[in-house]
Design goal:
single chain; alpha/beta; 23 helices; six-stranded parallel beta sheet
């Protein structure tokens, strides 16, 4: 294929814009799949554009379009209809649309119908040509959709990369060849062929991902076994104010077995919010120390690290274990004393943040490394902490419930312990869907909870007013904080989001934890790492913008104490949100999320918003994960698949090297 610089119209500015989005080569551009499609082959009637529907519709403009101007905003409105019905359309900041539309004109439009206070609208629909399936790419500032489409079409004609899947495997599974799949993924001739292309590319990603993960698993190092004795667990349990659950006992027994082994443990402890993972971690640290080792627990935030230290001291100090804390906010003198205590072994259990992996930190005998909220750390960060010891055992904790089939694919290099029981006495969080007309009633509830000394989270999907251009009336965190400060006066209302300086964010969270703020308005930055027992209300604005698994994580921020707690989902009722009102079981929620949104959502995105597994993100087929796992196991274990196994592992190793850690895992 020709170089990007050789494509007509791709000058220095466009090339730089592409590089900023991770597109440096022609191959990068061809393999950057569309994020969606505009299918105009089967247009709907305007009457079919009901709330939440995204698609193409055709009809006639009814009357003359109008241009509106209110407080610096401007938009064009028009009604489009046919013999079956009509729908209103709005174009924000596109005044020229008034001149492009006229009474009785037949139009083909593509957009999404949303409900606003004044009724149902299609916001910013695009004008389309009928009878086509047009790819839509993730925005690249300075490079329009047409130049991207034209460049991809040109490069596809010259695409000559070898197929990464063994030909025998693709044929046996009935998959398209890679070149045809890429062509149909970019410029599908039909929705049926597009589905087959997505299946082929997503299946490839899943197989290569598992092959790369298997390669990592094969690198577990030999280590010196720890002489962990069974009675130590009983000693630990005897000091607890309440008995552990059966699931906690099972996870601890699995960890003890690993610690006694000659291969370094690599285990994930996965469980729902509040299931008691921290207790399992503390017992693991206790067993490690009793066997003569030193343990470290790394948390993603200073607040969470401090909370873990308090739990460690409360639980382990009565058992004779000395614990200490190391974070980046310590003074130079505090850090020096902490480093000395770690290096000489005076601290047997060390809790900290990323500061633990600093070059000047040395451990006396690091034998167990635990990371909390594992998805907040990259592989390199975990590896750096492991490097502080001699082949230490590794345990990671995750509060994101994941269906088993998906867990085997995502974490095939880890043994998984699932804690699927909650400690007795926990009151389930009552979850309600709250439409806009009930907002004032909800505010009254927040005031009554505050009068009892309880606190409220309000989570918004946007940070500030600059995010509002395409969001219609969706409320931003900054806007929400201003409005709530007026609505709920004299209650104190704070604001925290990911764009704040780390120090400012930590201070605001500390004020909320200390009870100095009645209400905390936040983005999803509070999804993990905050434990405030006095917080009893969680309000989630624009709840239909979040995945079910993420909504469940946010809900888990309340209900941390004994009092009744509530989660209010600000949205119109739908099937997805009703799932949350029906169950507090995170695994049931995750399974529903997998069915409704597909497996790609669980793989996350890279720094620049580029999907970590682009084809899987688009395929939306959770059943494919289980099938891909079966195929991979067959290839790895069957003697007659030796050639396929060799090809697959080689392709995975090459791609992992190219990406600096397969699909962004590093």
């Amino acid at each position: 294929m020709r170089e990007l610089a050789d494509i007509r119209g791709f000058g220095p500015k466009r090339l730089e814009a592409l590089r900023a989005r991770g597109i440096a080569t022609s191959r990068d551009l061809v393999e950057r799949l569309p994020t969606g499609y505009r299918d105009t082959t089967r247009p709907l009637s305007p009457a079919q554009m009901t709330e939440g529907v995204t698609g193409c519709f055709t009809g006639f403009v009814i009357g003359k379009p109008a241009l509106h101007r209110v407080r610096g905003m401007q938009w064009v409105s028009a009604t489009v209809g046919d013999e079956c019905g009509r729908v209103r359309c709005m174009w924000f900041n596109q005044p020229w649309m008034r001149d492009r539309l006229f009474d009785t004109q037949q139009v083909v439009l593509f957009g999404q119908a949303v409900r606003k206070k004044t009724g149902l609208f299609v916001i910013n629909p695009t004008m389309e040509e009928p009878g086509r399936i047009t790819p839509v790419y993730a925005p690249v500032p300075g490079v329009g959709q047409k130049p991207l489409r034209d460049a991809v079409a040109l490069l596809l004609d010259e695409y000559d990369e070898p197929d990464v899947l063994p030909e025998s495997l693709a044929k046996r599974l009935g998959l398209m060849d890679r070149q045809q799949a890429l062509r149909q993924a970019h410029f599908p001739q039909s929705m049926e062929l597009l589905a087959r292309a997505k299946e082929r590319l997503a299946f490839e990603e899943l197989l290569l991902f598992q092959a790369a993960v298997a390669g990592e698993a094969g690198e577990r190092r030999e280590t010196q076994p720890l002489d962990v004795r069974g009675e130590w667990m009983d000693e630990f349990f005897a000091e607890l104010p309440f008995p552990p659950t059966g699931a906690q006992r099972r996870a601890i027994a699995e960890i003890a077995h690993d610690l006694r082994g000659s291969r370094a443990m690599a285990r994930m402890v996965q469980g729902d919010v509040g299931c008691g993972k921290t207790l399992v971690a503390l017992c693991a640290l206790y067993m490690c120390v009793r066997a003569g080792g030193q343990g470290a627990l790394m948390a993603p935030t200073e607040i969470l690290a401090e909370q873990h230290l308090r739990s460690a001291v409360e639980t382990l100090a009565p058992l004779g274990i000395r614990c200490g804390l190391l974070t980046g906010r310590m003074t130079a003198a505090e850090r020096r004393r902490a480093r000395e205590a770690i290096a000489c072994g005076a601290w047997q259990v060390v809790v900290g943040t990323h500061a633990l992996i600093s070059g000047d930190v040395a451990f006396a005998n690091l034998r167990l490394v635990i990371t909390d909220e594992q998805h907040r750390f990259g592989v390199r960060q975990r590896t750096a902490l492991e490097g502080k010891g001699c082949a230490p055992h590794v345990m990671v904790m995750s509060a994101t419930p994941i269906p088993r089939s998906l867990s085997l694919v995502l974490y095939g290099d880890l043994d998984v312990s699932v804690i699927d029981e909650l400690p007795p006495g926990r009151t389930p969080v009552a979850t309600r869907i709250v439409p806009e007309e009930k907002r004032q009633d909800m505010y009254g509830f927040i005031r009554r909870e505050a009068a009892k000394g309880f606190q409220t989270y309000v989570v918004c999907p946007l940070v500030g007013d600059t995010d509002m251009e395409e969001a219609g009336e969706l409320r931003s965190a900054a806007q929400e904080q201003r409005e709530l400060a007026r609505e709920l006066a004299p209650l104190s209302v704070g604001l925290v989001h990911g764009r704040m300086r780390g120090r400012d964010k930590e201070e605001t969270l500390e004020r909320f934890c200390a009870g100095e703020l009645d209400v905390l308005v936040a983005t999803t930055v509070i999804e993990v790492g905050v434990n405030v027992p006095r917080a009893t209300v969680m309000v989630i604005e624009g709840a239909d913008r979040f995945g079910l698994a993420q909504l469940h994580q946010l809900r888990g921020r309340v209900g941390r104490g004994a009092q009744e707690s509530w989660c209010f989902l600000m949205a119109e009722p739908n099937e997805r949100l009703r799932t949350l009102t029906a169950t507090n079981d995170g695994f049931a929620v995750a399974q529903k999320d997998l069915e409704l949104r597909g497996a790609g959502e669980f793989f996350g995105t890279r720094q620049h918003g580029q999907p970590a597994m682009p084809a899987l993100m688009l395929s939306g087929d959770g059943r494919m994960v289980a099938r891909a796992r079966e195929v991979f196991v067959d290839v790895m274990r069957s003697p007659e698949r030796a050639a396929e196994r060799e090809t697959l592992m080689a392709a995975a190793a090459q791609m992992s090297a190219q990406t600096g850690g397969f699909f962004g895992r590093n």
